Fold this sequence. Notes:
The chain is of the alpha/beta class.
Amino acid sequence: MRAQILYGIDNLKYVEMEAPPARPGEALVKVTASGICGSDVPRIYKTGAHNMPLIPGHEFAGMVVSCRDRPDLEGRRVGVFPLIPCGRCPECESRRFEMCKNYNYLGSRRDGGFAEYVSVPIWNLVELPDEITDEEAAMLEPMSVAVHAMRRIFLDKRDTIVICGLGTIGLLLSMFIYDAGYRKLLFVVNKDVQKSKLIGMGFDEDQICDVRYGDPTAFIMDKTGGRGADAYFEAVGRQENYEQAVKCTAPVGKVVLVGNPASDMALTKDTYWKILRNQLELAGTWNSSYLGSEGTVCNDDWKYVMDRLVAWKDSERGEDAHSFAPAELITHRITLAEIPAGLDIMKRKSEDYVKIMVRM
Length: 360
């Protein structure tokens, strides 16, 4: 098979290699689509992976071609939950598998989806309904991350909600929050493509602040009568955005920290005072909830996402002009061999992009 192998920092090579065997308890999956995540960029160019050489890629979908333990799965289309929990730590015993202390991970700790084939534990396979396309299935992971952030706090339908950072996760978060019935949404963007995608979804231009042309703090305070947001999702991961979130959140409001940190964070005294005096609630969010086959009963984040995808396709929105088709966030479609070019676009920001999708 062909694969992109990371041999070391900034040393990604497109090679021919043997396809992995279908190990006991695992299935051999032929990859049909694989998304490039923002976290792949520092992993490949700056920090390296936990284990190298390694095939990156944790957002992918495919078809089971071999599975000794579950031959009934052969020929089935599947999405893949990339985190492989240990099953023994206190978090696993509490079924909070996304918080496992001794996890393995496809695409960062063991071989992932930047390849024609990958071996995946059966527990991590998500069988797909016919309504979900291969590209949508490859986006189940970021969609579930967005839903997990949304479900981390209690939201009231009367709340004014700000989403700052409209990359893939922020745009998906916008879709799911609106779909869940929340209407008072404000957005803080810094790219033309982010604004155009929001407008394409049906949001109004006056809901959007572009930081290149306006002050987001003034925008939010103007829209909320000087009170601030009831809930603020910070999906950038920079200190200035974190401080802005605290500054722009109303008393007893909620700040959800979604973005991976770009560097160390230093909490200023004024920011700390704002948290104290306004009795703000801070919530972190990490990964997504997944319960394997139990998720079909317990409605984990992955089941929630798949149910909503099917519902969007089956529904007639009538007077609601909002249109939610996650694949419309795909701005580039490339081949497996072209992954370095896609990564370079993301690294240098040489072109506007949201989701870069690899089609096999």
